[in-house]
Write a structure and sequence with these properties.
alpha/beta; 8-stranded parallel beta sheet; 22% strand; binds zinc ion
């Protein structure tokens, strides 16, 4: 044995404390009083999970807020703000900014990630190249998969589809979309589904941010997912318009999504920043209720989305903070709902990304994160930090609890 992490409360059963034994990068045993000739880490009864899972983040356009003009008036359009900056973004520039953001994700406990990567004629494949290089360089700490997508439109932006195809042929594992920024949203959804079928990749689409529920792209996504039997291979991100619906209507939509096998990633920071821009007072919050979706059987995750750019000018890459933010916005109360929010950063997120090798179980990779809390609900309520992280059995992060230096 190489390592025994003693006295942890596993996220799926925090009422009990157990030890986790690790050998050759894998968990080999979980149980009481494990012993052996190994390095010992005593977690002191703290919470453990198999790593936080960032299911939706834009590393490639993080940390550009200082390059962008301030918005004038209530309306903001992050896409037209970023577009003029793209020609000047070199592979090196993207890599450097993405690396800084990634390091913050790591110290905040992420061990798995799906990152959205923009592809179009202005950006070319430079973002894809930078993210692939970054993923290879940080394989020791995190598994990263790229979701390539057209942020600035597909059907209205000649040359974009050819570049997406080039990325798919080069091995991009997931395809995304942003129909809201296409002159023909439905046509974009149709093309993206056609490409996903042709190249046999799962889908992860930005969907339904806006002022009204009159048009919702998710209806077309439901139709195509059912027609082509793609249940379990489709994720939709945002779904902020669900927050505009009365509960009975959003419940009916949630059940349709669950039945179709479409998972939902809620992105509270961005939706809180972008929604309600049609109003100058009594501004709506605009964040879909992830507990409500979960209660109706939808596989859900919570994620960061944007960090320090015109779609979200804030961010410290703490997923636990995002869960806390969500709890504040949705007025969530009660231990069991807060616990579910933590699972939407970990266990449920792994299911959403279809990660077969995730979890605190014998046989799984020894990805272990110790959080300075006794329960998942405490971690969310108090934004408790990770103290130690192992990736495949190797220590990748250490953070000391704060110490008060009281006078003698
Ligand atoms: Zn996004």
């Amino acid at each position: 044995m190489d390592l025994i992490v003693k006295n942890v409360r596993p996220v799926t059963a925090p009422e009990t404390t157990v030890d986790i034994a690790v050998e050759s990068g894998r968990i080999v045993a979980i149980g009481a009083n494990l012993a052996g000739d190994a390095e010992i880490y005593d977690a002191g009864g703290r919470l453990a999970c198999a790593g936080l899972v960032e299911t939706h983040i834009h590393l490639d356009k993080s940390r550009i807020i200082d390059r962008c003009p301030l918005p004038e008036g209530r309306r903001v359009n992050p896409v037209t703000t970023v577009a003029p900056l793209k020609p000047a973004m070199s592979v090196e520039d993207i890599y450097t900014r993405a690396e800084t953001t990634l390091k913050e994700c790591l110290v905040n406990g992420a061990t798995r990630m799906r990152t959205q990567v923009e592809i179009d004629p202005a950006m070319g494949l430079r973002g894809f190249e930078a993210i692939n290089a970054l993923a290879a360089a940080y394989k020791w700490a995190i598994d990263i998969e790229a979701c390539v997508f057209p942020q600035d439109g597909l059907t209205n932006y000649p040359g974009t589809e050819e570049l997406l195809v080039e990325a798919l042929k080069a091995g991009a594992p997931v395809l995304g979309a942003a129909p809201r920024y296409d002159s023909d949203p439905t046509a974009q959804v149709d093309r993206i589904f056609a490409l996903a079928r042709e190249y046999d990749v799962p889908l992860d689409l930005h969907l339904d941010v806006g002022d009204s529920t009159e048009h919702m792209d998710v209806r077309r996504v439901l139709e195509l997912t059912e027609r082509y039997k793609l249940g379990g291979r489709v994720v939709v991100g945002h779904m902020a318009k669900l927050s505009l619906m009365p509960p009975a209507e959003s419940a009916a939509m949630a059940r349709r999504l669950a039945d179709a096998g479409i998972a939902v990633t809620v992105l509270p920071a961005t939706d809180l920043y972008l929604m309600g821009r049609d109003r100058d007072h009594d501004v709506r919050r605009g964040v879909a209720d992830v507990n409500h979706l979960h209660a109706h059987g939808v596989t859900c995750s919570l994620s960061s989305n944007n960090i320090l750019n015109p779609a979200t000018p804030y961010g410290d890459c703490s997923l636990i903070r995002i869960a806390n933010l969500h709890a504040n916005i949705l007025q969530v109360v009660g231990a069991s709902k807060l616990r579910d929010l933590f699972l939407m950063l970990s266990e449920h997120s792994a299911r959403l990304l279809d990660l077969a090798d995730y979890g605190l179980e014998a046989g799984k990779p020894a990805d272990i994160v110790i959080i300075d809390a006794a329960t998942p609900e405490q971690a969310v309520a108090e934004i408790r930090p990770p103290l130690a992280v192992w990736k495949r059995g190797r220590r990748t992060v250490t953070r000391q609890p704060a110490v008060l230096h009281q006078p003698a």
